[in-house]
Amino acid sequence: MKEEKSLRVCEKGHKYYKSSECPSCPTCDKENKPKSGFLSKLSSPARNALVHEGIDTLQELSKHTEKEILKIHGIGPASLPIMRTSLEEEGLSFKE
């Protein structure tokens, strides 16, 4: 059963519809998207989830296992190859 979308307004006044309880505004997400770095390569939900957990650098990401990262709400398996490649480019990897 599909949830009904409700109209929401963010703190900046952007109007958008969402069916989930996720409070992030799509317009604000686009405005706040980093222009470089590994976070710029991820989807908004994955990026927001990592930042919410305090993981905003590759060094911080490398302190976690892939399993721990996948447990974070907003991170899906499609994000792992992007993160893995970004870590490898800097000579890092996920914690074993």
TrEMBL record:
Record-linked SUPFAM superfamilies: C-terminal domain of RNA polymerase alpha subunit (SSF47789)
Residue intervals of the RNA polymerase alpha subunit C-terminal domain: 42-80
Source organism, top-level taxon: Bacteria
TM helices/strands, residue ranges: none
A Gene Ontology molecular function term of the record: DNA-directed RNA polymerase activity
One BP annotation, GO: DNA-templated transcription
Official protein name in the record: RNA polymerase alpha subunit C-terminal domain-containing protein
Top-level taxonomy: Bacteria, Bacillati, Bacillota, Bacilli, Bacillales
